[in-house]
Write a structure and sequence with these properties.
Layout: E1 2-7, H1 10-23, E2 28-33, H2 44-49, E3 57-58, H3 66-84, E4 88-92, H4 96-107, E5 112-115, H5 127-138, E6 141-144, H6 147-155, E7 162-164, H7 168-180, E8 197-200, H8 204-207, H9 210-221, E9 227-230, H10 233-242, E10 251-254, H11 259-267, E11 271-274, H12 277-285, E12 290-292, H13 300-304, E13 308-310, H14 318-322, H15 340-350
Parallel strand pairs: 1-2, 1-4, 2-3, 4-5, 5-6, 6-7, 8-9, 8-11, 9-10, 11-12, 12-13
Helix pairs in contact: 1-7, 1-15, 3-4, 4-5, 7-11
The structure holds uridine-diphosphate-N-acetylglucosamine.
Uridine-diphosphate-N-acetylglucosamine binds near residues 37, 202 and 234.
Length: about 350
């Protein structure tokens, strides 16, 4: 069986790693990189560190407005799908690369499987929400990470195409955690292990409006410990355009980290403050308290179990939320036990 994975953005490389490994000896696995993310620290290091094979195709589309970026991918992917004629196109998560591959595949009748199906924020301002809803409804096989995702798919009439496989990010996180446990990565000067927060902010709703971004930076600046702000290129670019200094008060600006270094940095932190989807879950799996700067989350289990608190409008409360007491311990495993990639490959082999 020939399976073609399409990835393009940082969180997709993380999800691809355990899948590529689980495919070995089971199926012919080819990889397309759309080029949505292209900086070394946003792309190449993930392939190197996580042992992902070099992509068979790279479209090199780069940055652009949604329409132009997605359209460039659509044209390029159609040609590749026609050439390769895979038994499955496998798409990941909710980025523009996901949607482009989904549309390209179904138009030429190539079977489509969606990994991380069924997640919903119900926030229609998010480009990712449209990407995931449209991709789910186009797909022939929906690979859901959680029970909640399965319920969303059933509500939308998609139960007969859905399979609960678990979360592949748990697979890669557990493997990496074991490898980096004894290490202490270099931190910005003046930042001590066990006495800092890790932060990432990149969503359009948090970065595009100068007033909103300044409020977020000011609330991070007022925290009681250093805040290592791992700055996504979108954040750096917009802060410069808004004339906003990021390194202020408690905030120490640093470049994005490679995956093992990120996991190590979170493990040695006292808390995470983020608007990333993946990082909320990584914090939970590492049992580090998380504060999410968004009005809602797809990963509702992290909130229900007390390890994640949402802050959106009332940013003046950020310090008291971040500096809250450590939540009660839990042995709950809503994201599985690290064997999801094998379940994904089995489902793909069985359903064709
Ligand atoms: C994308 C995904 C988002 C995901 C995020 C992870 C969509 C709609 N959004 O958002 O779901 O959480 O990736 O990082 O697909 N840039 C660089 N170098 C790079 C990549 C991007 O400088 O390697 C800059 C671009 O110039 C652009 C900005 O970052 O201005 C945004 O990149 P884009 O891929 O469009 O979206 P993200 O915000 O990264």
């Amino acid at each position: 069986m020939r399976i073609l994975s399409v990835v393009g953005a940082r969180p997709q490389f993380v999800k691809l790693a355990p899948i590529a490994q689980a495919m070995e000896g089971k199926a012919e696995h080819l990889i397309v990189h759309t080029g949505q993310h292209y900086d070394e620290m946003m792309s190449d290091v993930f392939f190197t560190d996580l042992g992902i094979p070099t992509p068979d195709f790279n479209l090199g589309v780069g940055s652009g407005k949604h329409g132009k970026q997605t359209g460039a991918m659509l044209g390029g992917l159609e040609e590749i799908f026609e050439e390769v004629r895979p038994d499955w196109v496998l798409v990941y998560g909710d980025t523009n690369s996901t949607l482009a591959a989904a549309v390209a595949a179904v138009k030429i009748h190539v079977p489509l499987a969606h990994l991380e199906a069924g997640l919903r924020s119900f926030n229609r301002r998010m480009p990712e929400e449209h990407n995931r809803v449209l991709t789910d409804h186009a797909s022939d096989l929906l690979l859901a990470p959680t029970e909640v995702a399965m319920q969303h798919l059933a509500t939308e009439g998609l139960a007969d195409r859905s399979v609960l496989v678990g979360d592949v990010m748990t697979d890669v996180l557990f493997r990496t955690r074991a490898a980096v446990q004894s290490r202490t990565e270099a931190l910005p000067s003046g930042v001590e292990p066990g006495n800092y927060y890790i932060s990432t902010i990149h969503r359009p709703d948090n970065t595009d409006d100068p007033v909103r971004l300044k409020q977020i930076v000011d609330s991070l600046a007022s925290l009681d410990r250093p805040v290592v702000l791992l700055a996504h290129p979108r954040l750096v670019d917009l802060a410069r355009r808004h004339g906003l200094e990021l390194e202020t008060g408690a905030v120490r600006v640093a470049s994005p980290l490679a995956y093992p270094q990120l996991i190590n940095a979170v493990m040695n932190s006292v808390g995470v403050i983020t608007d990333s989807g993946g990082l909320q879950k990584e914090a939970f799996l590492l049992r580090v308290p998380c504060t999410t700067i968004r009005p809602e989350t797809e990963w509702v289990e992290t909130v229900e179990l007390g390890w994640n608190v949402l802050v959106s409008e009332n940013l003046t409360s950020l310090a008291s939320v971040v500096q809250r007491p450590t939540p009660d311990p839990t042995t709950a495993a809503p994201y599985g036990t690290g064997e999801a990639a094998g379940a994904v490959v089995s489902a793909l082999l069985e359903q064709r």
